[in-house]
Specification:
TIM Barrel, alpha/beta, globular, 14 helices, 369 residues
Length: 369
């Protein structure tokens, strides 16, 4: 049997020659490979892709509602609609919320999503997006999860393609990767997701990509999944990306169990540790390097220092600034705000050039170390 470093080096060379790691390769990297060897290989690949530059976006996350009828076991954010802290923002309230961040921090991306709110028709979203676009025309709307889009299509008795076309016409620019979790049905059953919802995520994304609408991709780890589930998840993304090249980036993020049903039931008591975070970043770089070359650091659930370490383990995008995000704090983990200067300083501290991008990953500024 090959020694671990030799096996990682073999995988690195195959990726450099344009190949995709096999399922067995990926499982080996999760279960057996030396973490430092993976990190070194991933950093080599990231260096080849983007040198010492790491991108970020001036972003605001806006949660327009917390009312949701899916009620996932891993979510502490949703409300049924009867609670005192359930909310739904009007378009006037949304415009008002955006204004200070647009004016003071010059945000270029608005990540807007909430829950599958059964009371909302398509017109709520199209009116909302149209108002945002008309008021802030250079703000890229990165909007709605595949679950929200699928539900709107069912509610309106029309196709997902027609819903996406309507949302794009109203101002939506791209689709976030929320809702991917792990695609495997057995895992999703424990997570409280409907059967077939993993396949549905892929189908919605394929429809969007076929229409020319770009999106991001994600994977949630650190709950009840096994290495084989993560391997299959990553390879499913590779397969879809080979068709339309529609994914702009990939973010692996670790599950936060606080205040969730999974924690209350005892299924998952603690969050994944730093070594698991770095292993997932490195493997994401190695597997997706030739398919989705932009890997995000997922600093939001791990802090600035782990964000810096993620860059050294293969990430080449920091993600975005954060102002008053609500979903992660619902778990009891406080993330605070992160402004543009803090990202630039964090990247400069590890010898990286910070590159500001817009919602579609077009460079709009350079901040050398």
């Amino acid at each position: 049997m090959l020694k671990q470093p030799d096996q990682v080096e073999d995988i690195l060379r195959s990726v450099q020659s344009g190949e995709i790691p096999t399922r067995d390769d990926i499982i080996f990297m999760y279960d057996e490979a030396d973490l430092n060897s993976l990190g070194q290989a991933a950093r080599i690949l990231a260096q080849e892709k983007s040198g010492n530059t790491v991108s970020f976006v001036s972003n605001m996350i806006l949660n327009y509602t917390n009312i949701c009828n899916v009620r996932c076991n891993f979510c502490a954010f949703y409300r049924t609609g009867t609670e005192s802290d359930a909310f739904l923002l009007t378009k006037e309230q949304v415009i008002k919320e955006i204004e200070p961040y647009y004016r003071n921090f010059h945000i270029t991306q608005l990540l807007i999503q909430g829950g599958v709110n059964p009371a909302l028709p398509l017109e709520y979203y199209t009116d909302l997006f149209r108002s945002i676009h008309e008021t802030y025309p250079d703000l890229g709307i990165h909007g709605l999860s595949t679950s929200e889009i699928s539900f709107i299509a069912r509610k309106e008795h029309t196709s997902v393609a027609d819903i996406i076309k309507s949302l794009v016409e109203a101002g939506m620019q791209s689709i976030p990767g929320a809702g991917a979790e792990i695609f495997d049905d057995d895992v999703r059953k424990v997570l409280g997701r409907p059967k077939g919802s993993g396949k549905q995520w892929l189908e919605v994304m394929e429809t969007a990509h076929r229409l020319g609408v770009h999106s991001s991709a994600t994977m949630m780890f650190g709950h009840v999944e096994e290495s084989r589930h993560k391997a299959d998840h990553l390879l499913a993304l590779v397969d879809l990306q080979s068709k339309y090249n529609g994914f702009l980036s990939f973010t692996p993020w670790n599950f936060e169990p606080g205040n969730t049903q999974l924690q209350k039931s005892g299924a998952v008591m603690y969050r994944a540790g730093g070594a698991d975070v770095l292993r997932n970043i490195a493997i994401s770089r190695i597997v997706l390097n030739n398919s989705i070359p932009t890997i995000q650091s997922s600093w939001l659930t791990n802090g600035i220092q782990m964000g810096q370490m993620s860059v050294l383990f293969g990430a080449n995008d920091w993600g975005g600034t954060i102002y008053d995000e609500k979903v992660i704090p619902a778990t009891g983990k406080q993330v605070g705000n992160l402004r543009k200067d803090a990202i630039i300083n964090g990247l400069n501290q590890i010898g990286m050039e910070a590159v500001e991008r817009d919602n579609l990953y077009r460079v709009i500024g350079h901040y050398p170390a």
